[in-house]
UniProtKB/TrEMBL annotation:
Pfam families: Alginate_lyase (PF05426). This is Alginate lyase domain-containing protein. Residues 373-412 are annotated as: Disordered. Signal peptide: none annotated. InterPro entries: Alginate_lyase_dom, Chondroitin_lyas. Residues 53-340 form the Alginate lyase domain. Keywords: Lyase, Signal. Residues 398-412 have a biased composition (Low complexity). It comes from the Eukaryota. The keyword Nuclease does not apply. SUPFAM superfamilies: Chondroitin AC/alginate lyase.
Amino acid sequence: MAEYIPQTVTLDGRELAAIKARLQGNETAAPLRASLDLLVAEANGWLTKGPWSVTDKAKAGPSGNIHDYVSQAPYWWPNPASTTGDGKPYVERDGQKNPEVLTYTDRQYVEKVFRAAYVLTLAWYYTDDARYAAHAALVLRTWFVTPATAMRPNLNHAQLIPGINDGRSIGIIDFSQAYASVLDAAVLLASYSAEGKEAWTAEDDAGFREWNKGFLSWLVDGKFGQEEHAQRSNHGSFAAMLVASIAAYVGDSTQVAKEVAHAVHDHLPATITADGKQPAELVRTRSWHYSTFNLLALTRLAMVADRAAERLSEQGKQGERVWPSLYAAVEYILPAATGGATQWQHSDLQFEQYAAADLVRAAAASGHAASQEAISKLEMPPDGDTWPVRPAPEQLDPVKAPGQKPGAPKPM
């Protein structure tokens, strides 16, 4: 197929094209080849799994519509003092995931949708193996496009708390952690269709774009979306990143500019101190995890802003950058990112040094000198490093379910 520069949302399309050229030119650099091998191995595993649908759950949620997404708040547990016999109303135990949440399949399945679609699409992009594109398209089509199986574009019943509510604004984070990667996958799949193949058709692409327009409207205009966007914590960071990413995907440059300006002039000054601390994350039981988690959202937002600025530059215009507002926060985590837990002056129930690896590399790629100097001292994830073939931050240190081993496959 002819070489092209993907107009991706977060990933740098020029960088993707350069990586592919190196690999197809028999590039033998060990890190790059090893990363592709890891990616392809994971893609091979996804080939035999799915597709999944929001309609696969045993029963509908509070709305009564099986097409509505439903999930349960992970850190809320039955109340031992409850007088109703069913543990309601539930009580919070921060940082401890209640295994009961797994009884709601929507979140489990949508995490598989996000991960499978992204990994399969990247595997196709680099190898030209049509099986990967075909299965990625099937996964996305089933969850988002086919009327009989598609999710409605809302999160009205995400992270509900038994006995307290039927859904919460913070449930938006069920999507915002990983959904932006799906948008990049859709851009790449559309290029496959443009080559005359039938994996991801024009009808699929149009249907997916309409779904995202509806979801964007729900996020921007609805009560839950506005509440989440106003949070001065990782929730507000992920909400801004999600809105900016979807807006970029559907071509709403005005909304992208609004999100970038909101981040630089409103959200970041309220969430990151002059010396780089993130107060809302440092009070959590896993302060390192949540500090890096918040930066995951913000660094991805910075990359979306970069892509938008590049397109504006082509029109002779100038776009605003997010990166300069993030460097103090990156510098605050650098000592622990390179030196380990003894260099982190806050409590964390399960410190994982490698959680910072992607963030520092993203900052280095943006031109941050201190991050560039730190790269050789970073600890890499124990289950393998795929950064060289998917150079955008991922959540490397998830809050693990009881019994899950460090380094176990991550849902994103």
